[in-house]
């Protein structure tokens, strides 16, 4: 039953990794942009949630109603003001700019909040659990994170394929010049894509802050988990991102079951195995 428990917990952990990765997958699918600062934006959202909960005395889940729109606004302004100027045939400028943003965010958070680990309190939600057959106990919080991850990805999938905004996303992704001739403002469309991406980051950051302690330096680690989930699932495939997160979470938990020191290594090995067998991921988007 220990192995079954490790797999179940890994599947639920995959929901959090899918939230880390969904925004990356979205903006890559729309504008082929790799955001090196993505992990630091997750940490920024966690600190924003911490500030709101401590200042206003709100539950972290209630604070999501403030964190998500603030992060979305940051994403839109960032894309319109800075990142749109770097997009083009050369992939190096956006990589360098987002790397610079990563450094700025880390040092800004370090200056404001110090290097001390922080954590948000969700009260009884953190310890509540459900008893399953076979003496399995599953935390309510991991279940909630997984359900939210599925709902978020389903929502993004609906937006991408069933809404007018999604049609605009697909149009500029296929051919920016023709989309412009058809009357689409690609700068605005890209801004909306980044706003959606960072809105999801806001959700991921708050759940990260509830689940574990965090500090300004952990962004690159969250970025790696997000990248691995995206690449395992297939670049630009949102449901594949969920599968990638689950594979990563299960691999880490099985590794930890074998030896606690192998947790992260097992996840990286699973990523390398998938990359070697399916270089485009398990479910690559077909253009």
Task: Put the structure in a nutshell.
The chain is 73% helix and 3% strand.
Note down, in words, how this protein is organized.
This protein has 287 residues and is mainly α. The chain contains eleven helices and two strands; from the N terminus they run ααααββααααααα. It has helices at residues 2-31, 38-56, 60-81, 92-113, 140-162, 164-174, 176-181, 186-211, 219-233, 238-258, 263-277, and strands at residues 129-132, 136-139. The longest helix is centred in the first third of the chain and has 30 residues, at 2-31. The model has no long low-confidence stretch (mean pLDDT 92).
SSE topology sketch:
Elements: H1 2-31, H2 38-56, H3 60-81, H4 92-113, E1 129-132, E2 136-139, H5 140-162, H6 164-174, H7 176-181, H8 186-211, H9 219-233, H10 238-258, H11 263-277
Antiparallel strand pairs: 1-2
Helix pairs in contact: 1-5, 1-8, 1-9, 1-10, 2-3, 2-4, 2-8, 2-9, 3-8, 5-6, 5-8, 6-8, 9-10, 9-11, 10-11
